[in-house]
Amino acid sequence: MTTTTATNESVVIKTLAPNHFCLDQNLNPRVVHTIAKSLPWYGPKFSPHKVPNFYDVSGITENPEAFKLVVDTFAERYERMKEKPTKIAGFDARGFLFGPTIAMRLGIPFVMIRKAGKLPGVLVSSGEYVTEYSTDETVMRFGAIDASDRVVLIDDLIATGGTALAGFELCHQLGATVHEFAAMIELPFLDGVKKIHEYKDGLFKDVPCFTVVDCLTIGEDMGRDPIGEDVPRVVKAEE
Ligand SMILES: O=P(O)(O)OC[C@H]1O[C@H](OP(=O)(O)OP(=O)(O)O)[C@H](O)[C@@H]1O
Ligand SMILES: Nc1ncnc2[nH]cnc12
To answer: The Phosphoribosyltransferase domain covers which part of the protein (predicted)?
Structure first.
């Protein structure tokens, strides 16, 4: 299913499946192109994990125009909604790059979903979860969100959806409603959004998931592995 909805002049949303939305690349060509073409990827030899394409969010953070477009896209989306989120929760670590600025724009709190072993105080745990390349556990401070909250969960990228579901679990345990899950990049071939909507017999099937670009819009041409067999992974800076 693909339908298109114009919410204002600048941001047009495409429906990919029930409660699965993305920016329409044909109708927002400048935004999608600028963001997608600011996202390099590296192959396994030059990545921290053995995945075919590891996407590098620093292509966005080091490009002020692209960084602003990402933040504006999310912030304007929530500013325009009749029913607004009450909190933004971001995932350790790359969700921390976008969440705080969006929360500040909306004038609402930013809550950290932290990897286990980093937060003080009384905590709730997501339990163990599996990502595209690791097994982790996330925690949130007890009381950071409660049953009155409508929480936007935000991250840089959704792959298998394991990390996202850990955030859904935390919100669920604390009685809060997830307003939306949002990520800048989606890897659709890993079916992360489908997994969120099918989790526990559809417990979260009504929660919208919104993404901006995917691996196809980024494209194979964004591969940035150095050319040459002998290029080392870590180099010494020349004096
Ligand atoms: O959909 P999934 O398969 O769960 O993968 C997505 C997660 O993987 C990455 O985080 P990572 O765990 O590598 O942590 P980092 O931000 O500290 O690099 C990314 O920032 C997402 O949080
Ligand atoms: N392919 C990928 N690139 C960057 N971050 C990721 N997190 C999970 N999968 C990833």
So the answer is: 58-213
C-alpha R_g of the chain:
18
Exposure class string for 168-182: b at 16+ Cβ within 10 A, else e:
bbbbbebebbbbbbb
**Atom of ligand 1 lying closest to residue 94 CA:** 16
Domain span at residue 212 reads 10-222
What is the domain count for the chain? 1
Q: pTM of the entire structure?
A: 0.95
Q: Which residues pair with 213 in a beta bridge?
A: 185
Q: How far is the CA of 42 from the centre of ligand 2 (A)?
A: 10
User: Does residue 238 sit within a domain?
Assistant: no
Q: Is residue 62 part of a domain?
A: yes
pLDDT by position in tens, the chain (length 239) = 555 554 443 568 999 999 999 999 988 999 999 999 999 999 999 999 999 999 999 999 999 999 999 999 999 999 999 999 999 999 999 999 999 999 999 999 999 999 999 999 999 999 999 999 999 999 999 999 999 999 999 999 999 999 999 999 999 999 999 999 999 999 999 999 999 999 999 999 999 999 999 999 999 999 999 998 889 999 988 76
Q: Does a structural domain hold residue 3?
A: no
The ligand 1 atom nearest the CA atom of 158: 1
Kindly report the protein residue whose alpha carbon is nearest to atom 2 of ligand 2. Answer: 54
Q: Are 34 and 218 in contact (CB under 8 A)?
A: no
